[in-house]
Design brief:
By secondary structure, the chain is of the alpha+beta class. It contains 8 helices and 43 strands. The strands form 12 sheets. The protein has an 8-stranded parallel β-sheet with strand order 33-32-31-30-29-28-27-34, with helices on one face. The protein has a 6-stranded antiparallel β-sheet with strand order 3-2-5-10-7-8, with no helix packed on it. α2 packs parallel to α3 (351-360) and α4 packs parallel to α5 (419-432).
Length: 664
């Protein structure tokens, strides 16, 4: 139980774990001492103690159980006496609740939120008792429903509270924490070049009671470390409408991707008679994103092909209830491979994960979960629009976010066409945030492919039939048919099990139980040859960075697993294809990696393949030099007819690195 007297102490202890988005007068995580049970009510012996983040599907949805629990569960916790004080307001912030959340205090209904991947904030001041503890309940339901996105998807819909809960305590007049659960503050770029950055800072305020706002003012400033580079202030309007202040930064430093991910600190202070009563601090990364139909993607006016991966918020042991260490580890692995972009497939993900991408200069594609199915139901339309607004307002401050994703593989085979809905979403996104592009991911030929600024396709030549070489011919035909479109590849990939190895290269059955790793490696080499050779593409995103759980799948070495990841579900093993991309995308960490060290080989002679970003390499067999190889256009090195015997050490060396294995 956190008492009022310990609020400030708690803040100091956990400040390093709080996303910049959550800053307010006082912010207190309440992630411990929750009581949990299945169903609307339960006997005491069925109630358990849990700590957030938490999902109730951690065990039953991981290994192919299509009947994993999707229904109503209850979280409850005591809120301590003393939270409610004269002149103070108390807000509850739920960072995610999958899928529908109903909030009660002392059995009084407070609010309902629909959508499992964005936060919501509600004021609870009037529901708290003076001088008494209160009981907070959050009833969460992840049952399938046709009025909330996603209706379905090739991933698990984990129920629970996977990103924690906070209390926000503010004065009676404050920067609005309940404006779409955003920071309430927006540093909007109007124009940015090397000479000047023109900004517009919008601050939303919230007032309670009859207190006049004429005594308040908003002061904004931008800082480069200890140096203030811009500032402005203005009195609060009598109706407490948003305060809009222009700022100009001369000779700005730019957020320039992985090479120089610089951000200023933007500060907004609400002052009463000169004293700060509420504030926000946010990163201000100044940059421009653009794309052309024939020239690819541009960062700050310079070509910057987005070489990226898709990522699900899903990890072994914890499912969707990731810890800060999980996010840090994922970003470290993504950075190690040399990626400069990540697609959040297929929903907004943790603010902490986006904070890390900001700081590493890795571009982020954030999208709403408009996946596969469109239901022509006004309630579904409203939910899509609301989730889009929440996503844009909540993630607006991240400099890494380059565009807003509106859809993924939406089904146009039904009579209810999704086209009008895509146009509506596109209009909303452009209205709220005209500084970023819109985009979609498609797997079909349809009119909505041309509605957004950017379009990308999910194509699996060489996995779900066909041959990897078809990728290039399909791309050229599509580009010729629609030369006006900015086109990329949003998904391509193949299953691969580190436990399943072939000596020969044989294309497997994708829905079967044999997914040998060497086909996944071959698939990626040959597909990437096609992608890298086409400068008109603005992106290529691999599906997927990590293996993840899908209860409906029964393939590969583990039921309920999508094994297209380049890294295993538990993040313990990097597959060979990981090192292929590292050789092409990571230009700093010099290395060489022998592919196929896990696969069986016939004795006598064999072919050795390696990936390296360090130029020519020489091979040694049993300590004897056996020749040099040069990397080809995608940094693959090959030695054919290498004589080997069981127990022989095979080693390859470049100028700065080496790798070896013992012939089995």
């Amino acid at each position: 139980m956190i008492h009022r007297s310990t609020l400030i102490l708690c803040l100091g202890m956990i400040a390093g774990l709080i996303s910049t988005q959550a800053q307010a007068a006082e912010v207190v995580p309440i992630n411990d001492r929750w009581r949990f049970h299945y169903g609307f009510q339960a006997p005491e012996h069925e109630v358990s103690d849990v700590t957030l983040p938490h999902t109730w599907n951690r065990k039953d949805a991981m290994f192919g159980n299509k009947e994993y629990f999707r229904g109503l569960c209850n979280y409850s916790r005591t809120l301590p006496a003393g939270l409610k004080e004269p002149g103070k307001r108390v807000f509850l912030k739920v960072n995610a609740a999958q899928t529908v959340a109903d909030v009660f205090i002392d059995y009084h209904f407070v609010t309902q939120h629909k959508g499992g991947y964005t936060a919501f904030v509600t004021e609870i001041t009037d529901f708290l008792k003076d001088g008494k503890d209160s009981k907070l309940e959050i009833r969460v339901n992840n049952a399938p429903t046709l009025d909330i996105a996603p209706v379905c998807g090739d991933f698990n819909i984990y129920g629970g509270l996977p990103r924690g809960v906070e209390l926000i305590v503010t004065p009676s007049v404050c920067i609005a924490p309940d404006f779409y659960a955003s920071p309430g503050v927006f540093f909007c770029q109007k124009h940015v070049d090397s000479r000047e950055a023109a900004l517009e800072v919008v601050t939303h305020l919230s007032s309670r009671g009859s207190e006049p706002v004429e005594d308040y003012e908003v002061e904004v400033s931008v800082w480069d470390g200890p140096r203030k580079v811009a500032g402005a202030q203005a009195a609060v309007h009598h109706d407490a409408s948003p305060v809009v202040l222009p700022l100009s930064i001369p000779d700005p430093k730019l957020w320039d991707g992985t090479e120089a991910p610089f951000s200023y600190t933007g500060r907004v202070e609400l002052k009463k008679n000169g004293t700060t009563v509420d504030s926000r601090e946010l990163p201000v990364g100044l940059r421009t994103f653009s794309a052309t139909a024939g020239g690819g993607f541009l960062l700050n006016g310079k070509p910057w092909r987005l070489n990226g991966v898709n990522r699900h918020e899903d990890v072994a042991e914890r499912a969707s209830a990731l810890t800060p260490d999980d996010h840090r580890r994922d970003v470290a692995i993504i950075k190690e491979m040399g990626c400069n972009a990540v697609r959040m497939g297929h929903y907004p993900q943790s603010q902490m994960f986006l904070d890390l991408l900001d700081s590493e200069g890795i571009a982020s594609w954030v999208e709403i979960p408009f996946v596969n199915v469109y239901v022509n139901n006004p309630a579904f339309d409203r939910n899509l629009e609301e989730q889009l607004k929440e996503m844009i307002y909540q993630y607006h401050h991240h400099p890494s976010v380059f565009a807003w994703g509106l859809f993924n593989e939406i089904n146009s085979g039904w009579l209810d066409r999704p086209s009008a809905m895509v146009q509506r979403l596109d209009s909303i996104a452009r209205t709220i945030d005209p500084t970023r592009m819109t985009m979609g991911a498609s797997n079909q030929n349809d009119d909505f492919n041309g509605f957004t600024d950017l379009i990308a396709f999910n194509k699996y030549f060489g996995w779900y039939g066909g041959d990897p070489a078809e990728m290039g011919s399909w791309l050229d035909a599509e580009h010729a048919a629609h030369p006006e479109r900015c086109m990329g590849i949003s998904e391509y990939g193949a299953g691969g099990s580190t436990l399943q190895q072939n000596a020969a290269l044989i294309q497997p059955e994708p829905w079967g139980h044999w997914h040998p790793e060497n086909w996944q490696t071959h698939y990626h080499i040959e597909n990437y040859r096609q992608l890298a050779a086409r400068d008109y593409l603005w992106c290529n995103f691999i599906w997927n960075m990590f293996d993840f759980a899908v209860a409906s799948r029964n393939e590969g070495d583990t039921p309920g697993r999508n094994d297209k990841g380049l890294v295993t579900y538990d993040r313990s093993t990097r597959k060979d294809a990981f090192y292929f991309y590292k050789a092409n995308w990571n230009h700093h960490d010099k290395f060489i990696h022998i592919a196929g060290k896990r696969q069986p080989r016939e004795h006598g002679t064999t072919t050795i393949i390696a990936f390296s970003n360090d130029g020519d390499a020489e091979i040694f067999v049993g300590g004897r030099k056996m020749g040099k190889a040069q990397p080809d256009e995608v940094n693959v090195l090959k030695w054919e007819n290498v004589p080997v015997a069981a127990g022989t050490v095979v080693e390859v060396r470049t100028k700065h690195a080496a790798d070896s294995f013992v012939m089995p």
